[in-house]
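FW: tagging you since you asked about this chain on Friday. Here's the raw sequence from the shared folder, copied in full. Didn't touch anything.
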Amino acid sequence: MKPTSLLLALASLSAIIAQEVVTVDQGEQIQFDAEHNATSLIGTWSSGSQSVQTGPGFANPRNRSFTYPRNTGVSYSFTDDGWYEISRYRLQANGQDPTCITGLIFWVHGKYQMLSNGSLYMIPNGDGFQQIQNRCSANSNQILDYNETELYNSWRIYQDATNGFRLQMQQFDNQSLAPQYQVSTTPNMLPKAQLTQTQTQVLNRRGLNGAANAATLLKRWWSGTD
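HL: got it, structure written out here
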């Protein structure tokens, strides 16, 4: 998919979703105890080969640049005072021209809420950004803002016999994110503050995959493994 098509879909998503979608205290209330989670959410988590990790080695918001990891993947970090950070790196193949691969790399941070119904709600700080690259496109390198709320219907932490603690998150439509494994019990994150001079508008949407026609598009970028 061309970057211009991706941008149009993202713009459509922002236009479609103009209402708050998180409802607190509905449904069965969840106890965040040892049965629900084998360990604390606090720390840094990463998928697959763990090449993608949050922190200063991935993104520099001040000059809106990235250090590209060896492999694709996703990483989440959480603090005990309600901050989160997400790093993602994905590649999208082109069925008509295998040499025209589109790459998208992304960083955002903000505050999260553990809702009593077991959902996890993330509110960005207003300084997130992403880079879209495709050498076959007329506009082959674009830097764009990214500041959208994300809602996860549920999350749990399991004990994996091979890889240790595993974080499994379900999106608003119950599609599973790639499993992430604990990298560190100490969050590896950039400073918990506004890191750019200008703060962009935060957009509300149902969850990581958005809604309507944009759901399939964003799922191709962010759902999946290394």
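FW: The first strand starts at residue 43 and ends at 47.
HL: agreed, and The mean pLDDT is 81.
FW: great, closing this out.
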